[in-house]
Amino acid sequence: MTRILLTGAHVLASDALSAPFADILVEGDRIAALLPPGTAVEDAARHDASRRLIIPGLVNGHTHGHGALSKGAGDKWDLALLLTHAPWISGGRGLEEKRLSTTLNAVEMLKKGCTAGFDLAFEFPAPSVEGLNVMAEAYRAVGLRAVLAPMVADLTFFQATPGLIAALPEPHRSRAAGMSMAKADAILQSIHDAARDWSHAVHGVRLGVAPTIPLHCSDEFMTGCRDLSERFDLPMQTHVAEARYQAGGGEERYGTTLLAHMDSLGLIGPRFSVAHGVWLTEDDLATLATRGGGLSHNPGANMRLASGIAPARAAIRAGVTVGIGTDGSSSSDNQNMFESMRLAAFASRLWDGATEDDWLGTAETVRLATEGSARLLGLESGVIAAGKLADLVLLDLDHINWSPLNNAANQLVWTEDGSAVRDVMIGGDWKLRDRRVLGVDEAALAGQAQEAAERLAALNAPTREWCETIAPMVACHCRALAGRFTRAKRLLAQ
Ligand SMILES: [Zn+2]
């Protein structure tokens, strides 16, 4: 078994409140021991980590690998408009584009200090065994851990949003009404087949399942996803109450909140996490906590799409496992968990009437982005301690972000932007050295990305034109729907 001794570094303590000098002994894929500086260890390769701050790898609680090829596609889009434009920003992808986009996403995460991500991966009109395998191979090539969860629905955005098709004038109404996803049975069969033969888990890529948005899934389809999750032990994640129009649509369709409806179908449990949850109620949080579910707080995407602020503090108080995520690059538009931490801490201060007790502190925020997110993925990582996975990020203390080092947690959240990330180890193996990704030719990757973006832009141009035509009508309808979710039900910070 390989033994590596990292010497001379500041090491972030498990409570993230301090970063004393310590040596770290790594054996195989795990941390074997935290040792006093200078401890003699035989049969271990020494790695001089002086002038480094070692932190646990950040874990991205919510992302989309397919989003990387469409970073920067939009500007003044809320969620309804993002979904309206989805057919052209994610359309026309073949297997190689799926591999490419996932690789881009994984490389960006790695270079910005992230060692694992919960990826809701989209294929249209249905997930395929081949597609899931190439995306898993992309993570393996970069060396990042992932939960790869096919993001699925049996209803289109137009079918899913109450009253939307009827609100469109002809000929757009007919076109929207004529769109469809693959049949529910075929989608569930694909996930079943992928799960039955999944070979990537031992290499750090676990299969999950993601019924994408409750309104976009028939009840039978959601229970089908639930059954697959139970049968194959698949982590499950769903965008729940991300935007207010969805909360309004849930009231209209189910007569309950979205989460209450999912709970009535038996989906909410320890394998389940909510992505976003901006419009969850107090009762929703209590249900989520009681069932052992989690929440990925993605403040960057929520601000970018004007969705609101997720009740992270209230979720923590309710006993929900909370992690932090970036969301995909079609709505965030980067994979920078340092930025996500900073925005989470900032957002917690914006609740009307919130006091310091309600704000997220820096050490607490770091723990959400490490331990918290790791729990959403079911990973034994997120803290530097004996027995944990050796997923470690080495920050350069000679970088301007750390000149000088005053307080590790404060600077991780307030100052660091990913640019001081120098080396990353995942499972005891180096994946980033001196800022270079070891498993991928980054220059070739950039060329492939540009070529694919141009090819896809040409291919999807007619679809784009139609999406842009109907976008104002969709925006108008969804704004009215949002008004049906009353403020009285809105959760308060306290
Ligand atoms: Zn998302």
List the helices and strands and how they pair.
Layout: E1 3-11, E2 21-27, E3 30-35, E4 45-48, E5 52-56, E6 58-63, H1 79-89, H2 95-111, E7 114-121, H3 129-142, E8 145-152, H4 157-160, H5 164-167, H6 172-177, H7 184-196, E9 205-207, E10 210-211, H8 219-232, E11 236-240, H9 244-254, H10 258-264, E12 272-276, H11 282-291, E13 294-297, H12 299-304, H13 312-318, E14 321-324, H14 337-348, H15 362-377, E15 392-396, H16 408-414, E16 421-426, E17 429-433, E18 436-437, H17 442-459, H18 461-482
Parallel strand pairs: 1-4, 1-5, 6-7, 7-8, 8-9, 8-10, 11-12, 12-13, 13-14
Antiparallel strand pairs: 1-2, 2-3, 5-15, 15-16, 16-17, 17-18
Helix pairs in contact: 1-18, 2-3, 2-17, 7-8, 9-18, 14-15, 15-16
The protein binds zinc ion.
Residues 62, 64, 120, 239, 275, 327-328 line the site of zinc ion (ZN).
